[in-house]
Amino acid sequence: MQYTKPPLSIADQVSRLSARGLTISDTQYAEKTLKVISYYRLRAYTYPFQDNADPDHPFIHSVTFEEIIKLYDFDRDLRLMVFDAIERIEIALRTLIVYNYAMKFGSHWYQEPTHFRNTQYFDNDLASLDKEISRSDEEFIKHYFRTYHDPFRRPAWMSLEVATFTTLSKFYQNLSLCNEKIAIATCCGLKTFILENWMHILSNVRNICAHHSRLYNRRLSQAIKLPGYTYKNLWLSDNSIVDNTKMYAILCAITYLLDRMVPGHCFRGRISDLFDKYPNVHPRVLRFPIGWQNENFWKA
Q1: Domain ranges across the chain
Q2: Average pLDDT, the chain
Q3: pTM as predicted
């Protein structure tokens, strides 16, 4: 089938939304908004209120244009909050990995295949890291090249400092099981296989945030693994009510890691404040269970 839909003017976009049943009380405000937030981007927020089996996508739930924009603003604030938290976690994990392995195996341990489980993955990940280093404008990267010629690659505390979170997560996942790998996971209050999964998931969520994509009502392509309540560190009392492909599970994981990495963090309070700021957004859209505030995990 050939795509034949023509572009719509801003005025036509407003008219179409109104014709489909979206309540628009201030046409001028709607037009100004659609000039800076695209009609297609807002579609992700109108979607749950529409009959999407019908090609005309009529609104089947009463909602106003202003309420849709509130959902959009809520998602933006959530995204900024999550991005900030993941930055702190990423930096802490990078530090733990570099320190534990460098102290045991030296400055260039990351380029030795003997530390890794899968040689092909190792080659691919090291090639990705080399590209990231070559694109870096960091002065310490340039200084090493000007000053030293052997080894060719920079020490781990330089090289992995400029690695993306995705590359860092792949390195950790492919590391052979050893005391150093276990020590890193233990610092996070996790088993290694769970930390591998969390690093992968959080790197994806971080990229979603960095590209200004939607977290609101999003289902992740891969489920996050949930630790058991028997862990010595505080966790949820009942994993069975948690949808581990939705944002509630991600926010729990972020909070859990921040508890171990960022003393005095205020992430729990920021979540509560966000819902207070947007009373029209029900926590259920992020799959928060009923009575979630009563969990000891959220009272910590």
Answers
A1: 10-63, 72-299
A2: 93
A3: 0.93
